[in-house]
Design brief:
six-stranded mixed sheet, binds NADP nicotinamide-adenine-dinucleotide phosphate, globular, 2 domains, Rossmann fold, alpha/beta, six-stranded parallel sheet, 37% helix, 12 strands, 10 helices
């Protein structure tokens, strides 16, 4: 049976084994998928061990997404642009790295939820690894404007410059958004894990605006409360993106795309 795992620290909370096992059952593919806790200092050594032990693929979560990119024999173009890897596939020479987060977001936002990005004014809050991964695919959809806002002011500037060949991104700080209005607001900050949401200028959401959070579970609550109070007509969490990025990893490994709707429903049921 092919062996797969998700590596991270902490890792006990990860839903990836449940998602991949359910995908496998749906498509009649037998697989063994584990959670493996890996400390940052041991990352390189553990990747070599897991390769030697015959693992066919690994998902990568915090805090390793950036560091893993430098451990790969090859990385895909989208992982290179994201400067982060969430999927490792085994090759003889080691691991190839890919990043399925951007694909996962767009499949959930556009295909599952029916929120078209083309022609819209879009705001991404947060400029960490996840934000960087979703920006190039967002640009590809042709938004009217894409603004990247962050607490630390230099990160949006740096990212906008690095991705300039893919389309225009306007860098900003949260405070500098005063007077702007957006039709889609995507939260890619991790601050919800601390049960908080930073202060934002009033009036950020245009009439009929949709709010999407990469976070899910308890970490989604602070953004959801802010977005509803700010007038969002719909507020979505990132559970669908989690399943969609997993489906994209599954397709890379097994050559078949699972149906995601039943798995999203299964996770929502608890
Ligand atoms: N649904 C999914 O499939 C999926 C996939 C990937 C990620 N995610 C979620 O996306 C979120 C971001 O992940 P990441 O990998 O990008 O994390 P990251 O690289 O650590 O970036 C964290 C971001 O949050 C901001 N931030 C943190 N604390 C803040 C605070 N107190 N006030 C204002 N801003 C704050 C940081 O701003 P500074 O730059 O100023 O520090 C940075 O922009 C996490 O919640 C993660 O769970 C979900």
């Amino acid at each position: 049976m092919s062996r797969f795992a998700v590596i991270g620290q902490p890792i006990a909370h990860s839903a990836s084994p449940r998602i991949h096992t359910a995908f496998g059952e749906q498509l009649g593919i037998a697989l063994d998928y584990e959670r493996i806790e890996v400390e940052p200092e041991a990352l390189s050594e553990r990747l070599t061990e897991l390769h030697a032990a015959g693992y066919a693929g690994l998902n990568v979560t915090l805090p390793h997404k950036q560091a893993v990119a430098t451990e790969c024999a090859r990385v895909s173009e989208r992982a290179r642009l994201a400067e982060a890897v969430n999927t490792l596939s085994r090759i003889d020479a080691g691991w190839t790295g890919d990043n399925t987060d951007g694909e996962g977001l767009l499949r959930d936002l556009q295909d599952n939820l029916g929120v078209a990005v083309a022609g819209k004014r879009v705001l991404v809050l947060g400029a960490g690894g996840a934000a960087r991964g979703i920006l190039p695919p967002l640009l590809e959809t042709g938004p009217a404007e894409l603004v990247l806002s962050n607490r630390s002011p230099w990160k949006p500037e740096t990212i906008a410059e690095a991705l300039a060949a893919h389309g225009p991104i306007r860098p900003a700080t949260h405070m500098a958004l005063k007077g702007d209005h957006f039709e889609i607001v995507i939260n890619a900050m991790s601050v919800g894990h601390q049960g908080a949401f930073p202060r934002m200028p009033d009036g950020l959401l245009a009439q009929g605006a949709v709010a999407y959070d990469l976070s899910y579970g308890a970490a989604h609550t602070p953004f959801a409360e802010w977005a509803r109070a700010a007038g969002a007509v719909a507020v979505h969490d990132g559970l669908g993106m989690l399943v969609e990025q997993a489906a994209a990893s599954f397709a890379l490994w097994h050559g078949q795309r699972p149906e995601t709707a039943p798995i999203i429903a299964m996770l929502r049921a608890g």
